[in-house]
Amino acid sequence: MSPQAKAEQLGIVFEKQTPGYLNLCIRCGNQLITSGHVSTLKGKLGAGVTTQQGYEAAKDCAAKILNSVWNAHGTLDGLRVLKLLGCVNSAPDFIEQHLVINGASDLLHEVFGKTEDGYHARSAVGFVSLPTGVAVEVEAIFEVKS
Questions:
Q1: What is the pLDDT of residues 54-99, one digit of tens each?
Q2: SS3 label, residue 89
Q3: Are the C-beta atoms of 38 and 134 separated by less than 8 Å?
Q4: How many Å apart are CA 1 and CA 15, to the nearest integer?
Q5: CA angle, 86 as apex, 85 and 90 as ends, to 5°?
Q6: pTM attached to this predicted model
Q7: With helix as H, strand as E and coil as C, how does 5-65 read?
Q8: What are residue 83's DSSP bridge partners?
Q9: With CB atoms 3.0 to 4.6 Å apart as the test, which of 4, 14, 90, 141 could cross-link to 94 if both were Cys?
Q10: What residue ranges define each of the domains in the chain, with the CATH number in brackets?
């Protein structure tokens, strides 16, 4: 099954975006580079927000990224995930950022294949705060293969 078909089967919604203040996904050569996409969930991991809630928030970010990539490229087919940066709004003693960002990685593995085009490099880091108090922000880089 193609990545586009798999994403649709998973219920990811693809909607046309209206250009805003910043470009949500820009092409540079054979790469698609996304802006940070933020979770709907607000709050601080380890201080009221659980790791599982953060995992779902990161998954939400990845779904938003896929919509932006679709808007820029017209399809998810012919792409390879290269790199994710996951930012987690963390309490000082919270140390499970990697488990939170697994939500984004797992969705991309499911869409593109864990050992194929979805196998990516990643960083997961904690921040004292994120814009508007969101729990998670994720950005990505994709290679256009064809």
A1: 999 999 999 999 999 999 999 999 999 999 999 999 999 999 999 9
A2: strand
A3: yes
A4: 21
A5: 145
A6: 0.97
A7: HHHHHCCCCCCCCCCCCCCCEEEECCEEEECCEECCCECEECEEECHHHHHHHHHHHHHHH
A8: 121, 141
A9: 90
A10: 27-144 (3.30.1330.40)
